[in-house]
Every structure is written in C-alpha cells, then in structure tokens.
From TrEMBL:
A molecular function (GO) term: oxidoreductase activity
Signal peptide: 1-33
Pfam families: Cu-oxidase_2 (PF07731), Cu-oxidase_3 (PF07732)
Protein name (record): Copper oxidase
Length: 343
C-alpha cells in the first residue's frame, strides 16, 4: 500500500514556511488502477477517449492500518508504523470489491474504525454497541463489502455502494466523539466501473471550527497544474453546520460532479452544505475557463470563515510555475490569518 505521490498535493516553496497540503497516503488498490481508452459506463466519459477509468475485479483487498498518537494531543490512522496522518489514508475500491482492514491500536485509548456507505456485519460495525472495537494495544480486523446496483422482480433499482464516503473512530468517547475531535477520520471512495479517475484527490474535513484539524493559515493548501483533473472529497464532523464553497470552479450536484449527457437537468453548484456525518465529492478541471491562480475554498458560514475555516487551492501554470499574482495572494492570505493556528 505504498504512497502515491501523484495523489498527495505536495507543495513547493510557496510561502516562507514549508507547507504539506493536507497530504495523506492513498491506498488505491489495483482495482482502481488506470485503464486507457474510452470509458463506456456513462455518456459523460464515453465521449472523451483516452481518459483513465476504474475497473472492477471483485477482489478482496487486505490492508493494515495503525492508530497512533500524534503531537498536540491528536491521534491518526496510518498505513505503516510512524506514518499516521490527519486525515487518515484515503481508501479507494470499486463496487464488487471487499476491503479487509486490520487495525493495530498502538494507543492507550479504546478506539475503532467505522465506515459509511459500505456493507459490514455487526462484528465489523466499529461501535461499542456491537462490542466491535480495539482495546488499547489490541489488533482487530474489520471487513467492508461493496456491491453494484441491482434490481429484482417487482422492485425498483437498488443503489450500489459507489459514492464519496468516509470512515472514523466510533469508540473513543461516547460514540467516538473524542476520537473524531482528536483526528481519527479519513476518506473512503467507492467507484463504479467506468468512473473517470482523477489526477489528484484532495480530502477536506470540516471538523467543528477546523479544516483537517487546522485553522488558517495552517489549513491544507492544495495545488494542481492548469488542466489537471482534480477530485475533492468533502467530509463533515463535529457539532457545527457548515457549507463548502470553492472559488471559480463549479460542479454538478450528483454522485460524480459531471452531467450524464446534454439533456441532464441536474443543477451546477459551487456551494453545498457540509454537516456532521455528511460527505460528498466531485471532479473539476483545474483552472478551466478561469486560468491559473490562487483560489479560496472555505466555509460560507461567515463567522466560520472569519474564524479560520478557509484554505487555498493553487492552480499553477502549465509548466508548473506559480503565477506572480498567485504568490502575492498566498502572501496576503498568510498575513491576514496570522492570529490563527492549529487545533
């Protein structure tokens, strides 16, 4: 489960500090590996030949994750000892696949891992309610299954597992409250066969008044090159209601963020509610129609953005360089949020 640098959003020397843009390891299993040629699963992808698409194999993927204490009272999930992050690793599979997660609890806290959007039995629930958790120092395996859309005689179509989901602790504190506050959460993407694959995926978690347990100017700074296909996975946690807004880019309010065809009436949006326990995702082309530059993403509840719930999405020039006006905007962002820090 090696880290995929192309998915991390690693920044260069953009400010007077070195910034790691909310980077997390990505467990993109072979079922999500790129295939080339025209996609055939949806009209939107079939019209664009040569794009990378997801393929299904019906495979059981096994991964070991480690829950580890981090500085500042945080706790994170990682794919190897010493590699825990907040958010935890981005997990990606395709409908029909199974994911077996062996969670090693290296902390002195009772904790677990609980998923949204997939199938699991009571023993993999990740909740004390079903006696499904890791005691301090304990190792436990959780099994998550996925399925494709189905229909049976006399019944409507039933949804599959494809979607932009997430996982989190459900055992440290009542219902995992303390675990979520400490950073025990991460992104989970279940793709449908033929879904377009992005060049980069960014995970953004609104957790009370923080983004990925940080406040501006320490919030994640994401970057892409003009024209890259960028995917956003947005997750809500904590006790507060939020909205997610991305400047200069818009998406369609459905599962993928793309229209299914020329007559699809689904509205385009650039702002969406992001409340505790909810998640959504979408893909955009970086700088499409607006060019390179530094663009904000933030909570559109005004006192939340004023309080530090904002970050920067940098769209570089095609050659990878940073536009002068973008660097100036980043400098203003850091100067204007000097009073805020980490969680």
């Amino acid at each position: 489960m090696a880290d995929n640098p192309a998915r991390r959003g690693w920044l260069g020397h953009l400010t007077r500090r070195s910034v790691l843009a909310g980077a997390v390891a990505s467990a993109a299993f072979p079922a999500v590996a790129a295939t080339t040629g025209a996609a055939t699963a949806s009209p939107s992808s079939a019209t664009v030949p040569g794009l990378r698409t997801a393929r299904a194999t019906g495979t059981t993927h096994r991964v070991t994750m480690y829950a580890e204490a981090l500085p500042g009272g945080l706790i994170g999930y990682g794919l190897a000892p010493g590699e825990a992050t907040v958010p935890g690793p981005l997990l990606e599979i395709v409908e029909g696949d199974t994911l077996e997660i062996t969670l090693v609890n290296t902390t002195d806290k009772r904790l677990s891992i609980h998923p949204h959007g997939v199938d699991y039995d009571v023993f993999s629930d990740g909740a004390p309610f079903n006696n499904s958790f890791n005691e301090p120092g304990e190792t436990r395996t959780y099994v998550w299954r996925t399925r494709e859309r189905t229909t049976t005689a006399g019944r409507a179509w039933l949804p599959g597992s494809a979607g932009y989901w997430h996982y989190h602790d459900h055992a440290y504190g009542d219902h995992g409250t303390d675990g979520l506050r400490a950073g025990l959460y991460g992104g989970l993407i279940v793709r449908r066969k033929g879904d377009l694959l992005p060049d980069k995926t960014f995970v953004v978690v609104f957790n009370d008044m923080t983004i990925n347990n940080k406040m501006a100017p320490e919030t994640p700074m994401f970057d892409a090159v003009l024209g890259e296909r960028v995917e956003w996975l947005c997750i809500g946690h904590g006790n507060m209601e939020h909205t997610f807004h991305l400047h200069a880019h818009r998406w369609v309010d459905n599962r993928t963020g793309y229209l299914d065809g020329p007559n699809d009436p689904t509205p385009a949006i650039d702002n969406k509610d992001l409340n505790p326990g909810s998640s959504f995702g979408f893909q955009v082309i970086a700088g499409d129609g607006v060019g390179p530059g530094a663009w904000m993403y933030h909570c559109h509840v005004q006192f939340h953005s004023d309080g530090g719930m904002s970050g920067v999405f940098l769209v570089r020039n095609e050659d990878g360089s940073i536009p002068d006006h973008a660097q100036e905007a980043i400098d203003r962002y850091h100067a204007g949020h000097g009073g805020h820090g980490g969680h």
